[in-house]
Design a protein that fits this description.
The chain is an all-alpha fold. About 70% of the residues lie in helices and about 5% in strands. The chain has a single domain, classed as Growth Hormone, Chain: A. A 4-stranded mixed β-sheet has the order 1-2-3-6. The longest helix has about 35 residues. The N and C termini lie far apart (about 45 Å).
Length: about 475
């Protein structure tokens, strides 16, 4: 039976009185509650990213255990979780006001058990079909969908002055799940972590044993613990309740669509590069043991996001985003200079390529934080202009609701980068023998983002300065 604390602004796990912009309320109780929800949210989101991107490592090891899929087929397995995850994010964007953050976080985390267990079982059977693996890759999109709802949920808990940093911590440390996965999986597949319960190892031609099923099984106990923690430790906010129809008002907002473009440039790049980085290195520098280095890119991007949210809070997200895109143009150009003309050629430089990609990952993290800081600032200016007849309280609620929905929706659109970037590599390689065409396309897109950011947000007398 739910325990009522209505006199304290809480009924069961539901916060009926939530005023983060009230300094007194925030200092007395709001900050502690928000912090608890944030630190439960982070490991749930980290696991979501780990499961979402697990194919980026699994596909690199599949040929060694007898799954002789083509390079194109393996790029599809690396790319499909991005496609399904991005599509699910569109729906997940609107779930928090409908179901509440506590219930939805619990359910969405528990859903990760399906692909985690499925991969562990399927990879042990050499007769498993390619279609089965395609389905499991699509199911990993559950992890991708979680980001939209997680960010929308945390956005409700914090005041504007610290929202950028809170979102950066949630997203940045959550994004670290990609790096954690790319570091942990190569280790756990070399040992029988779960004993007889985990199944027999696969023996390679040189006698080495692999437990590739552990790439899926290793997450199962942590998923279960995190889902239970969300159910018992998180809160719902009564004022955050809204129908899907009410939230769809963001589709009429021009700023929503502009920010979709910019966030695709930052987060779409981060997650797309994370998904394609191991296989890109393997195809372009086959002499390098790529799994020793692959985790570093997502780690750099995740940590830079978590550590730089305060910069945008201090200097303005628009200014930071403008310089981020300029830096990304330079970094991609550098990558192009160090790639070999063909994988067999000796004219490339792995360390030059790697250094430029580390710079690129770092910049995507800074840009991920800065773009999300921009959204509440933009809507604080736009809602009074668009809806002047609302009183101050209703305007504030609308700002919070639409900011949260736009944060979630832009993350959904940007997540398609996890599909398009690996697929662009594969298409470029199949058509020209090299990934250069894809990278030139990315560079041109960043140039477009520079122009948009300058014209709308960062120049003197910009229409929506931020």
């Amino acid at each position: 039976m739910a325990i009522s604390h209505a006199q304290n602004g809480q009924v069961g796990h539901t916060l009926t009185d939530w005023r983060p912009e009230d300094d007194g309320f925030w200092t007395e109780k709001g900050h502690a509650i928000a912090t608890r929800n944030l630190w439960i949210s982070i490991p749930n989101l980290l696991l979501a990213f780990s499961v979402w991107m697990v194919w980026s490592v699994v596909v690199a090891k599949m040929p060694a255990i007898g799954f002789n899929f083509s390079v194109g087929e393996r790029f599809w397995l690396a790319a499909l979780p991005g496609l399904s995850g991005a599509t699910l994010r569109i729906f997940y964007s609107f779930m928090i006001p409908v179901f509440g953050g506590r219930l939805w976080t619990t359910l969405s985390t528990a859903s990760l058990l399906l692909p985690a267990i499925g991969i562990g079982m399927a990879i042990q059977n050499p007769e498993t079909t390619y279609v089965t693996f395609l389905i499991l890759a699509l199911l990993c999109g559950f992890g991708g969908g979680n980001f939209a709802s997680s960010m929308a949920n945390i956005a409700y808990f914090y005041p504007k002055k610290t929202k950028g940093n809170a979102l950066a911590l949630n997203a940045g440390l959550g994004n670290a799940g990609v790096s954690v996965m790319q570091f942990v999986v190569p280790i756990v597949i070399t040992m029988g972590v779960f004993g007889a319960v985990g199944g027999e190892p696969q023996t390679l031609s040189d006698g080495t044993q692999l437990w590739l099923q552990n790439a899926g099984f290793i997450w199962v106990p942590f998923i279960a613990i995190s889902a239970i923690a969300a159910w018992f430790g998180m809160n719902d906010i009564a004022d955050a309740k809204a129908s899907v129809g009410t939230q769809l008002s963001i589709l009429k907002r021009k700023q929503n669509w502009i920010m979709c473009i910019l966030y695709t440039g930052t987060f779409g790049s981060f997650i797309g590069y994370s998904a394609g980085f191991p296989l890109l290195m393997r195809t372009q520098f086959p002499e390098v043991d790529v799994l020793q280095y692959a985790f570093l890119g997502p780690l750099v991007g995740a940590l830079s996001r978590a550590a730089t949210g305060w910069i945008s809070d201090k200097f303005g997200g628009g200014r930071v985003t403008f310089w981020v895109f300029l830096g990304m143009i330079i970094a991609v150009f550098g990558v192009l200079q160090f790639l070999p003309s063909t994988p067999e050629a000796a004219d490339g430089s792995f360390w030059g390529f790697f250094a430029c990609f580390m710079a690129l990952f770092f910049l995507t993290g800074v840009g991920n934080a800065s773009t999300f800081q921009m959204i509440p600032s933009i809507m604080k200016q736009e809602i009074p202009r668009l809806l002047p007849k609302l009183d101050a309280a209703d305007q504030q609620r609308t700002i919070e609701r639409e900011s949260s929905a736009i944060i979630a929706f832009t993350s959904a659109i940007a997540a398609y980068g996890a599909f398009f970037i690996p697929k662009a590599y594969g298409t470029s390689i199949s058509m020209t023998g090299a990934p250069h065409g894809a990278l030139w396309g990315f560079l041109i897109f960043y140039a477009v983002c520079v122009v948009i950011t300058w014209a709308v947000y960062s120049r003197k007398n910009a229409p929506v300065p931020c």
